[in-house]
């Protein structure tokens, strides 16, 4: 079974490793096919243009011969065809120079037929109505074949060369009777040479281009796949060991892969922080619950042995057990609050709170609960529409923690001052008490979990040492800050700062929250 699983994993890894080959093949094949199509199109365009030029040359010869021979009223024969040709043409047929001194004086270049049939690629044959040759130039005489219509143009392959054949019927301009046929064979030497060279160079260029495209594709694909392999490697390491510190190295690039690598690193950091939170939660709960559980267990053992028969012992044990159970309940609740405070961005990402309303309500409620304390509020520097991005219940919890903390550690002067103000960029909330104060060496530690300046007195007042730790986690989760200034014997001042929320951003967050709430409504409720 293990071998089968191992072979399956190896097969999957082999499949994954072929990603480069597949991508290179696809990219190279796409570019190659596109280049081949482009080359074929270019080849066809050049061939067509060049062939049209050659056809025009052949047609000029046919038109010139037809114009010359159409003046003959009878069937074409050697006796009437040769005299119809110009003197210069007859000299060419005899092997003499096409132009002599007399022709120069008489402008012999005006004879179009000379330039037509002196082309070495042009082979001309004139046939009578009995398909007999009455005139031909060159060593190769184009063969005649019957055709329909007055003219026919066709291409033929001969010895890997393309030859253009043009067949033309000759009608007498005198009586409009068919007198013979003209056949022009254009060897198209330039065309064949051009297309052969073009095909050769296109093949060479295509092979070079394919090699370049494959190499370029490989470099491009490797540039993309290598970071993905690094990400996969890190993911496997973290999967094998969730506590691994392995992270994707910084990519020196500014694209989606760099953004993906950063996102994965942030995700791994968060995942690891959740693991650490879970471990710390379990460890803290185990440590803090050990004492109350031991106390309750001790009382129960004592009652089981002999205390149940003593009403006084029984009453004391029950009260002590209930007190420890109540402390355990508060401890567990505070631990849950602390864990939730570290996951604010998941649970409350778009919440908005009016600072004035919340501060007034909390101060009013606590003043009613603690009538023996003078809890004063100063919010003259806080506009009524001041808002921050925080869940209103958490802002209430923060104020309750700080005010309750000041009440617990107060001395003779039972007064708490709460003030709130705003600057251009932040909102500040200050809670000041006039109690015992905190020594300078303890001020940096009071936000740690379960830290107590005086453990004995803290237990008497019912604290677990988690309130300020919860406060710090909540403030940090909402991108704020919390600090303390204290003098022993004179009291402490806790100051919270939060980013001020602009009206534009507040409207945007409300819109997102409304859409989220709308989408979360169950089926059957009108959205």
UniProtKB/TrEMBL annotation:
Domain of life of the native organism: Bacteria
Cross-referenced Gene3D superfamilies: 1.10.287.130, 6.10.340.10, Histidine kinase-like ATPase, C-terminal domain
CC annotations in GO: plasma membrane
SUPFAM superfamilies: ATPase domain of HSP90 chaperone/DNA topoisomerase II/histidine kinase (SSF55874), HAMP domain-like (SSF158472), Homodimeric domain of signal transducing histidine kinase (SSF47384)
Catalytic activity line of the entry: ATP + protein L-histidine = ADP + protein N-phospho-L-histidine
Broad enzyme group: transferase
Domain HAMP: 222-276
Compartments (UniProt record): Membrane
Transmembrane segments: 20-46, 198-225
Main subcellular location: membrane
Record-given protein name: Signal transduction histidine-protein kinase ArlS
Organism of origin: Lactobacillus ultunensis DSM 16047
Taxonomic classification: Bacteria, Bacillati, Bacillota, Bacilli, Lactobacillales
Gene transcribed to yield this protein: lisK
